[in-house]
Design brief:
By secondary structure, this protein is an all-alpha fold. It has helices at 2-57, 66-105. Helices cover 75% and strands 0% of the residues. The protein starts with a helix and ends in a 23-residue tail after the last helix. The protein binds zinc ion (ZN).
């Protein structure tokens, strides 16, 4: 029956090894999570630092950071221009559908209310 005991020992050893492996894996996972958390913090510290540098150097043409600052300045300007363009498009769209509705519901010539989809005004007969 020696082989049975041997087998048992082997099983126990394998199980122990698997437990160690699982423990190692858990440890590694924990450390990787900590690294990810710290790296995320580092990124936000870099961003904060960058913003502070930008604010203090953006108008200083002799600064070694001026070129990088200029890139941000022109990108910010571009964003502002695009936002203005969007606002303009939205304003045009707000005016246009209102005119469309009025045109559909009232005769453009005499102002009489007209049924939607009718082609001529029922009051003055002008085309809609
Ligand atoms: Zn009419």
């Amino acid at each position: 029956m020696a082989f049975l005991k041997d087998f048992g020992d082997k099983l126990q050893k394998a199980a122990g090894g698997a437990a160690d492996k699982a423990k190692d894996l858990a440890e590694i996972t924990k450390k990787n999570a900590e690294i990810a958390r710290l790296e995320k913090n580092i990124d936000s510290y870099y961003t904060e630092l960058g913003k502070l540098c930008y604010e203090s150097e953006k108008t200083n043409a002799s600064s070694p950071l001026f070129e990088q600052c200029s890139k941000i300045s022109s990108a910010l300007l571009e964003v502002e221009n695009l936002r203005n363009e969007i606002a303009e498009i939205k304003m045009q769209n707000e005016v246009a559908p209102a005119a469309e509705t009025t045109k559909g519901n009232f005769c453009p010539k005499c102002g009489a209310p007209c049924a939607e989809g009718s082609r001529f005004c029922t009051k003055c007969g002008s085309p809609l």
